[in-house]
């Protein structure tokens, strides 16, 4: 049987793991980031964005597959709301949650009420067969596409998974809902075997994902610092420290030893999800960290010779002009080496999505027209704040950056895209609420 796994535009690590599981079971499996018609017996789409549910290329590939009598299954983070996936894309089934165990049975048996962790339509009714079993942390090698070395995700060819789950419960984030709040870690030996395989396949730069890197091997919410250091040391031994990043980290998950290890075994950057300078908004976001903890964490990173980047979310429902000003003030104060700005996106299955569904449109900054300084640009309030914050952050980086016309237009294009994508996602959410 021939199986094609497609992960649109970026081959995600999760898609490669599913490909590896199927290949190990003896199926003739291939993987690609190109969305195209296929002559495989089974098409598996690994989808990680709500935008994929509206993507005409994906709809066409599924239609083609079904018309020629092949089967099509969808999995990945979009499965948080299987009714949306079935309604928008009409695959034969959706793999809900972690798919490593479920996909094998689905491929072998086809959709059936006996397989836990799937959703499918039968005689006009949606059947959901409970939750998927958590996947074991030992697994076959991922199926690596031959062009992996050309892929670029925030500077890395691939983000590998060292553990699943996050002790945080941020209201906008899917990680604790998809993988749970208990951390399940892989063995260092397995991770290093995989890193060698990626290197052999042409990967130059690896990044560690998993919500918060330093939670690797943690138990009952307590960090296992020696294991994290050993992990970084091991991967750097294969790739070289200049080719490893361990970016995402919670401000309350650092120690001096963790920071020294990041400095010694990686490219030397830490990436904090700071989100807001307003305590009120951080509480609304369920961030579980305070602005003072952010200040302290940034200071400590600098003392350990690390560069610090921060991500911020604007346009969260309930964010007032004063809240937004506090975020601007914090950026000015911290003078971060890099800043990433996003408009709050209601990802299905998250508390933020529930919040967005519960408020009238006129209270959602994504729908409110901006009437201030950028009115002539025709932005929503959320887009205007994102645009303004990008410009503001450039002014307050340690290395002063002049915003020229090109950057101005890039930022404008970026916020318009974010705004329109989020409007489209919100419309889908509303349709299936
Ligand atoms: S700390 Fe990061 S991974 Fe964990 S819930 Fe918050 S945003 Fe998600």
Automatic annotation (TrEMBL):
InterPro entries: BchE-like (IPR051198), CHP04014_B12-bd/rSAM (IPR023979), Elp3/MiaA/NifB-like_rSAM (IPR006638), rSAM (IPR007197), rSAM_horseshoe (IPR023404), rSAM_sf (IPR058240). Its cofactor is [4Fe-4S] cluster. It comes from Methanocalculus chunghsingensis. The keyword Plastid does not apply. It comes from the Archaea. This is Radical SAM protein. Residues 152-384 form the Radical SAM core domain. Keywords: Iron, Iron-sulfur, Metal-binding, S-adenosyl-L-methionine. It holds the Pfam family Radical_SAM. The keyword Iron applies. The lineage of its organism: Archaea, Methanobacteriati, Methanobacteriota, Stenosarchaea group, Methanomicrobia. GO terms for molecular function: catalytic activity; iron-sulfur cluster binding; metal ion binding.
